[in-house]
Design goal:
By secondary structure, this protein is α+β, with helices and mostly antiparallel strands.
Length: 976
């Protein structure tokens, strides 16, 4: 067998690609473009494990395929380099986050290059590089200087808004703005001083300051998003999180809610992911109305999608965070409400929405007046109401809503039937069938009719209006931390102003520590003279993690442009991403914010596309194969001066453990185990001078313990490596199987350092090569599915590559290719493979192509095919999957240019069409012969030839057949 020196080959061609800039992409209007992109990684200190490259390999296969098909391919890579982990490490060690980040990026790049990706490293971006975040800051400035015009349904310049204010005030302005914005005339606007005008403009800006309720983590010293909080604790570190009001920078993403919703119909994304965004946006069509609280001088505004149920309201519920709580609570209820609010408002929104078992609330003591019936309605505080959705208050209709129903039952509040076909004895009934009852002017109408009539009556009486509402809230755009983009904002008289564009990038200052200041200000408060040259203080918070990732895909198109975030020429050519691969966990974070920023940039004429990513694939997770050893707990007798932790550990092999658990172990086996344990303890005592002795052995306490999968092969433990793995395992007593092997248990779990099941791709590449890793990850199963990693199965792929190598070499390990004409069988095998591989890539079904390659090589090997006409095309087809071996064989075949410059072969259907078919011929249902006929031969001719053949004549025994059944391309059956 010819030697396949993959280590030498792979390093050789990786250097060649880098030296020749084989994957560098420039604007070239003469070629069609293809832009493939992976969600860029955060460079953690742990580096890559084998699960991380899955999506990268898939996008690389497509990129290489498209290049072979004549496309100009942009396939870049960069790093989402700002973030909390580097900052937390900096807090612990004092090392600047930039140093840690640079080290981690270097490690990632080494690993990525070892896998042989076709990345254009000339386009690399790092979000923490001032040359990059200069433009993140610049885009923020554009957002600050823009407002959303509902009349034109797009963002426009604040300068135009100011011009309108100067001419006619804001009476005719239809904007996405703070709902509490007062109306004013041009004269009143002119009378405002600068501070008042700037304050008013904050109500309109797409990037604005507002007091809002946030998830505050004191231990991390920062605000966290809802996705970063689980059960009241930070996802990172498990620190307590409280809800508190803070002044924050916000992004008015709600202005784009409808466009974000409609845009989902124009992109090729997984339907479950699109549904996640639809639910997050949460469009509701309904009505808004006021319930007055006369003695408090307050109106409680509610939004409802079921105005037809308005007469079924028996209480109002307001969110614990609502400002209304303080205004409504009566003196006698103050203590109870205050205590309740302190607990309820610190529960996360997710927890409050999903926890339906625990019903809690507090009566404010106040009563509102029903706007139609005039009846008094009690006002409660309830944590199932969220301040961020709707108005932060709900009109509770127990008959039609289950949470309202449960709350009413729990607190003994009335439940009024409102539909003649509903059964509310045991649960709420939200049905829209039947007729409305107990509802004044709505009685006798169907619910649908009552909805329309209810809105008409609200507007007629001036107590409400029809309204479309969205669940999505404006996005918080700041974090109280160090390692993020500084905001190019300074403060004058307490109001924000933008720095001049000439001052960008505003670079992170040096600080003595990466912690908040003693008075609780963000870490930037530690910087010396963090102020403008005029002495105005600069914003102390930094941008969130999603800032840079919301536009980075445009920077790849023109990564070195110092004058624009992307040139018009580059953006118009590359347009947007044709294929984007990444995780579905980013559905309501990065993917939503990217679409928002893209639409804003489109509105401002800065890009020509309405959506950033045409096609999106969510790759599944590669799960780890966890291995276990089995520790026997044993009581020891010992001298008083000895410690229990110094006793030798005892590990039983899985087969032994299983027999013990099933009570299938024999006395002889038990005696052997006792003897081995006694010998092990004796050896330990002799070695360490101790006097441990085993008390009575109890086999009932056997504990599975995770063991490093890298010292396990085919579930067989490397005993010596295990002893060296942990110091306290060195003297372990290890009970093996009768054959001397220690058999480990296994499970499939998420890859995690804590489970010791992380497999480093470097180790796989060192042992098997990068091409084997690439092929094996694709071979594991469909890209979108979760699948377990099992190093045990990688041998088959490795053997395939050696078999492919051997097609080009003779038994003397000499490269040998024939220029002879290929046979029909060889051509059929090749063209079948070309067609299958092309169709698979075009539908992103990579695992089936790997199987096809294996079949092809096996069939060609059986034919001893070494013909150039076959193998040269085959190696081009294989090259997107296994580029290193393909380059080497291509070179050995005498080609002077890289295989990346080759053309993908076309398949010819003529070679795939069967000219003959071999029929099994039966007589009275028993197969008596096999006969081949042309596939286009008429049935009558087949019948004649079958009956004339000697093989069938002898079975007819001179009898005439009753009939002959011919099923084309299937069978022939002669019935006698």
């Amino acid at each position: 067998m010819a030697e396949y020196n993959f280590n030498e080959i792979e390093k050789k061609w990786q250097k060649y690609w880098a030296d020749h800039e084989s994957y560098k992409a420039e604007v070239d209007p003469s070629k069609p473009k293809f832009y493939a992109l992976d969600m860029f990684p955060y460079p953690s200190g742990a580096g890559l494990h084998v699960g991380h490259p899955l999506g990268y390999i898939a996008s690389d296969i497509v990129s290489r395929f498209k290049k072979l098909k004549g496309f100009n391919v942009l396939h870049p890579m960069g790093f989402d380099a700002f973030g909390l982990p580097a900052e937390q490490y900096a807090i612990q060690t004092g090392q600047h986050p930039a140093v840690t980040t640079e080290q981690n990026i270097k490690r990632y790049k080494e690993q990525l290059k070892n896998i042989g990706f076709s990345f254009d490293w000339d386009k690399e971006v790092q979000t923490s590089d001032p040359k990059f975040y200069k433009w993140t800051q610049w885009i923020f400035m554009q957002l600050f200087n823009s407002w959303y015009n509902k009349k034109t349904d797009k963002a426009e310049s604040v300068a135009e808004l100011i011009s309108a204010f100067e001419k006619e005030g804001n009476v005719n302005i239809e904007a996405a703005c703070d709902e509490k914005t007062p109306l004013f005339s041009a004269k009143e606007w002119a009378g405002y001083d600068e501070k008042q005008q700037q304050q008013m403009l904050l109500n309109y800006r797409l990037a604005y300051l507002a007091d809002t309720t946030v998830n505050w983590c004191p231990a991390l010293g920062t605000v966290l998003s809802n996705d970063e909080v689980k059960d009241g604790f930070s996802e990172r570190g498990g620190h307590p999180v409280i809800r508190k009001n803070m002044m924050q920078w916000m992004m008015r993403i709600t202005a784009y809610a409808e466009r974000l919703l409609q845009g989902l119909d124009t992109i090729d994304w997984p339907e479950p992911l699109k549904e996640m965004q639809r639910n997050w946006i949460g469009k509701s069509i309904g009505a808004e109305l006021d319930f007055p609280v006369a003695d408090k001088g307050v109106n409680i505004r509610v939004f409802t999608t079921r105005i037809d149920t308005v007469y079924g309201v028996t209480y109002l519920a307001i969110a614990p965070e609502s400002d209304l709580v303080g205004q409504l609570v009566t003196e006698d209820q103050k203590d109870e409400v205050t205590s309740y609010v302190d607990v309820a408002k610190n529960r996360s929104e997710r927890e409050r929405m999903t926890d339906v078992k625990h019903i809690t609330g507090a009566f404010t003591g106040a009563y509102a007046t029903h706007p139609f019936s005039g009846e008094k309605i009690p006002v409660w505080v309830a944590d199932y109401v969220l301040a961020g959705y709707g108005t932060g208050a709900v009109m509770a209709v127990p008959a039609g809503d289950q949470r309202d129903y449960d709350f009413a039952r729990h607190f003994d509040l009335p439940i009024i039937p409102i539909n003649d076909s509903a059964n509310i004895e045991k649960a709420a009934d939200p049905t829209k069938e039947g007729k409305v009852i107990n509802s004044g002017f709505l009685n006798g109408l169907t619910p649908v009719e009552a909805m329309q009539r209810g809105v008409e009556e609200l507007e007629k009486r001036g107590i409400g209006k029809g309204k479309i509402n969205y669940r999505m809230r404006d996005a918080i755009f700041t974090r109280q931390r160090y390692w993020g983009e500084p905001l190019p904002v300074y403060y004058k008289d307490g109001l924000p102003y933008l720095m001049d564009e000439s001052e960008l990038p505003l670079v992170l200052p040096e600080v003595d520590k990466y912690l908040p200041t003693e008075d609780g200000a963000p870490p930037l408060g530690r910087a010396e003279k963090w102020e403008t040259k005029e002495g105005y203080p600069i914003e102390l918070s930094t941008m969130p993690g999603w800032a840079g990732s919301s536009w980075y895909f445009f920077r790849y198109m023109d990564a070195h442009n110092e004058n624009e975030f992307v040139s018009k020429e580059a953006q118009q050519y590359w347009e947007n991403v044709d294929l984007y691969i990444g995780g579905s966990e980013h559905a309501t974070g990065h993917l939503l914010y990217s679409r928002f920023w893209n639409k804003f940039l489109y509105d401002m004429g800065l890009v020509t596309v309405k959506e950033p990513f045409k096609k999106l694939i969510n790759q599944g997770m590669i799960q780890g194969r966890t291995n276990f050893v089995y520790r026997l707990s044993l009581n020891y007798s010992m001298s008083p001066e000895l410690e229990a932790e110094d006793t030798p550990e005892i590990f039983l092999s899985k087969g032994v453990t299983d027999r013990i658990k099933k009570s299938a172990i024999t006395k002889a086996e038990t005696d052997i185990i006792h003897k081995l344990i006694a010998e092990g303890i004796a050896n330990h005592n002799k070695k360490h001078g101790t006097d441990f002795a085993a008390k009575e052995i109890d086999f009932s306490i056997i504990t599975p313990i995770h063991v490093d999968v890298n010292i396990v092969n085919n579930d067989i433990l490397d005993i010596e490596a295990f002893r060296n793995w942990r110091p306290y395992h060195a003297d372990a007593i290890i009970i093996t199987e009768p054959d001397g092997n220690y058999l480990c248990g296994h499970e499939v779990e998420k890859m995690s350092k804590s489970k010791y099941n992380v497999v480093n791709p470097d180790d796989i590449i060192e042992k098997y090569g990068a091409d084997t890793l690439r092929l094996y990850e694709m071979f594991l199963g469909p890209l979108e599915q979760f699948k377990p990693w099992n190093t045990n199965g990688i041998d088959g792929v490795f053997k395939f590559l050696r078999k492919l190598w051997n097609l080009f070499h003779n038994s003397m390990d000499e490269f040998e290719i024939s220029d002879a004409e290929p046979s029909k069988d060889e051509l059929k095998i090749l063209h079948k493979t070309i067609k299958k591989a092309q169709e698979d890539i075009e539908r992103y079904s990579f695992n089936t192509s790997v199987s096809e390659f294996m079949i092809c090589v096996n069939e060609l090997s059986a034919l001893k095919c070494n013909k150039r006409a076959i193998l040269e095309q085959l190696i081009v087809v294989v090259s997107p999957y296994a580029p290193h071996i393909a380059e080497e064989l291509w070179y050995k075949m005498g080609n002077e240019t890289s295989i990346t410059e080759a053309a993908y072969p076309l398949y010819d259907e003529n070679y795939l069409t069967e000219s003959q078919h071999e029929y099994p011929v039966s007589v009275n249902g028993k197969m008596r012969a096999k006969m081949s006929f042309p596939t286009d031969m008429p049935r009558e001719d087949i019948e004649k030839q079958v009956l004339a053949s000697e093989a069938i004549q002898k079975w007819l025994e001179g009898k005439s057949p009753k009939k002959v059944i011919v099923v084309p391309k299937k069978i022939v059956n002669v019935v006698v």
